[in-house]
Amino acid sequence: FDPRHYLGTHCYSLPKTGPHRLRFLLESVKDLRETLKKKGSTLVVRKGKPEDVVHDLITQLGSVIAVVFHEEVREILQW
């Protein structure tokens, strides 16, 4: 979980993640972890800036072949 996702937006400082969205995210992650566990796998969940957390996790695991990620798309709307 990237703490920057829970700060205010660039415009008007509105919350990016309200309580309902946060609850949905937490429940989804919990469900995914449980589903993976039933299939003999696991889910690693960390809190922090991804650029730091991923580096630390790779160092900790030592035998990482690939890292896959997605980047948030930021659109600038012009009226």
TrEMBL record:
It comes from Bombycilla garrulus (Bohemian waxwing). This is CRYD protein. Signal peptide: none annotated. One of its GO terms (molecular function) is damaged DNA binding. Keywords: Chromophore. InterPro entries: Crypto/Photolyase_N_sf (IPR036155), Cryptochrome/DNA_photolyase_1 (IPR002081), DNA_photolyase_N (IPR006050), Rossmann-like_a/b/a_fold (IPR014729). One of its GO terms (biological process) is photoreactive repair. SUPFAM superfamilies: Cryptochrome/photolyase, N-terminal domain (SSF52425). It holds the Pfam family DNA_photolyase. Residues 1-79 form the Photolyase/cryptochrome alpha/beta domain. The keyword Repeat does not apply. Gene3D superfamilies: HUPs (3.40.50.620). The gene is Crydash_0.
